[in-house]
Design brief:
Strand order of the largest sheet: 1-2-3
Oligomer: single chain
Number of strands: 3
Order of helices and strands: HHHHHHHEEEHHHHHHH
Helix content: 40-55%
Radius of gyration: 24 Å
């Protein structure tokens, strides 16, 4: 970062952050990479947030973390929410992430003995709005899955159609994240036991059951389609392959879902578009609607905390309210 260049988020404070500040940020990001195992996307977001924080400190002539006050942190976070330095205001969720990055940096500096106090302790982070995850009604899920792998005039499905159906059945049948699905290897799937090993965030793995529909779709794909697709490539253990025999990418999986959503008459683009995470949300919501315990759903989803899973219980309560409002004769006064 220089005084003449942007720091990666488009801002230009005109001041150069002090070397001590940059060393502290590098150390913190290294800690997150090695000790916490954060994903590359999360690290990139934290790096942008902290670059902007360093520019803010440089503009205030602060050259060391020990000289930062709680007021300086509060002013920086307020500028993020209101917009400053030619940047648009951050959404509440993005501002909360930026606050988490700043607070984490100061906690790290205190643990490492770089400072004697943590000024961020008394700074209350912005509360992001609670967004209820959008789940598809079961009928929409069924229609989406049934149109995922179209058949030809003779009633047979092409290899890529078998793959598409297997992928979407796998996503809904296991609650896998898109990265977990495209990262799954053939040895991770046990068709005899009806289970799969998913490799989740932070290097955590979990064993999840695969339902009957997904098992049949996977079996058909692995037997009748994958060998031919693999022959076009150089050999890869990935379950889901592209037309050239290489591992299917996240972007490729998104394209498959968009095509299936379009055929099913569901939103394929725009704010209401069906996404891979929509299938994961639907998986969790339908389990809870069916009586599954929230702790079991937590394990199936691979959430580190049950608090993350409990947002789905709010979805089911909303659904109960809808049913009550339309079905009870005295629900509306």
């Amino acid at each position: 970062m220089t005084g003449e260049q942007s720091t990666g988020d488009g801002s230009d404070a005109g001041e150069v952050p002090a070397p001590a500040l940059r060393r502290a940020v590098r150390g913190y990001l290294d800690h997150l990479t090695v000790e916490r195992g954060l994903s590359a996307n999360t690290l990139a977001s934290y790096r942008r947030d902290l670059d902007r924080y360093l520019d803010s400190l440089a503009a205030a002539a602060v050259s060391d973390l020990s000289a930062v006050s709680a007021g300086e942190i509060e002013r920086h976070l307020a500028r993020l929410r209101s917009g400053a330095d030619g940047q648009p205001p951050l959404a509440a969720s993005s501002a909360a992430r930026a606050a988490s990055a700043v607070r984490g940096l100061h906690r790290f500096a205190l643990r490492e003995g770089l400072v004697d106090a943590d000024p961020s302790r008394d700074v209350r982070p912005p509360t992001p709005p609670r967004r209820l995850p959008r789940a598809l009604p079961l009928d929409d899920v069924v229609r989406l899955l049934e149109t995922a792998g179209p058949v030809d005039a003779a009633g047979a499905a092409a290899p890529l159609a078998l793959r598409d159906r297997a992928l979407l059945e796998f996503l809904y049948g296991t609650g896998a994240r898109i990265s977990e699905a495209v990262g799954a290897a053939v040895d991770d799937v046990d068709l005899d036991d009806g289970a799969a090993v998913l490799h989740g965030k932070g290097g955590r793995t979990r064993l999840v059951p695969i339902g009957g529909y997904a098992l049949r779709a996977l079996g058909a794909y692995l037997v009748r389609a994958r060998p031919g697709l693999a022959a076009a490539g150089r050999g890869t253990p990935a379950v889901f392959l592209n037309a050239r025999g290489g591992p299917l990418t996240r972007q490729g999986a998104w394209a498959i879902l968009r095509r299936a959503a379009g055929r099913a008459g569901l939103a394929a683009d725009g704010p209401r578009a069906v996404s891979p995470h929509t299938l994961r949300h639907s998986y969790a919501t339908h389990l809870l609607d069916g009586g599954a315990d929230v702790r079991v759903v937590q394990e199936l989803l691979g959430h580190a905390s049950v608090t993350t899973t409990q947002v789905y219980t709010l979805v089911t309560v909303e659904r109960l309210r809808e049913v009550y409002a339309t079905a009870h004769p005295r629900a509306r006064g």
